[in-house]
């Protein structure tokens, strides 16, 4: 589905921040192919017949669900005919266990609040490395299992980093990647005031409630830049990153770009 501008949200009724990656300028002045890559929040938000019809019209073949097992259990994706849904938790602790993104649970402890406020950049800096979910995603991209949709719960953090990696692989500029990431702030508008009010009623000081609200419902430039910076600090080039993390060499990368740039 071609949009008027790259990154524009698709017209879903109850699934905010459902977007595609098509249209951005990549290698050699070519553009990312429309209709190949979609990003969204949890598909449990697709509840109306109209939204379901919109989703099915996209022809998505493969869905990557980056949420933890608990998140998936609480709000399972609906089944769609002909769609392969792959559960692949994208946020793992250092010991390889899934990170529990139960927001209500996190807000009940000082450590949880600290993770939401002070630990965000650290989490982003870990996401690009040793991540089996992203490895599986790039494997599907190499295999041409598109159209692909990938999502987490809000469609902004784990999903946002995955989108950045795909765009970077296709040669999209860093500034366009960051701007695409920041579009979440314009797309996710429902419920922010209510969420902040809930935090204040739970006892959080107004300033801290505002900070947590911004992190829980929006995104910040520093977050995605921490992920991109971490890659640049560890590897001499993004091509070397792709080779080391996803076994994508020069020939495979050229094939990906030939397939998904027009």
UniProtKB/TrEMBL annotation:
Source superkingdom: Bacteria
Span of domain Tyrosine specific protein phosphatases: 144-196
Cited Gene3D superfamilies: Protein tyrosine phosphatase superfamily (3.90.190.10)
GO molecular function, one term: phosphoprotein phosphatase activity
Family indicated by similarity: Belongs to the protein-tyrosine phosphatase family.
Name of this chain's protein: Protein-tyrosine-phosphatase
Source organism per UniProt: Ruthenibacterium lactatiformans
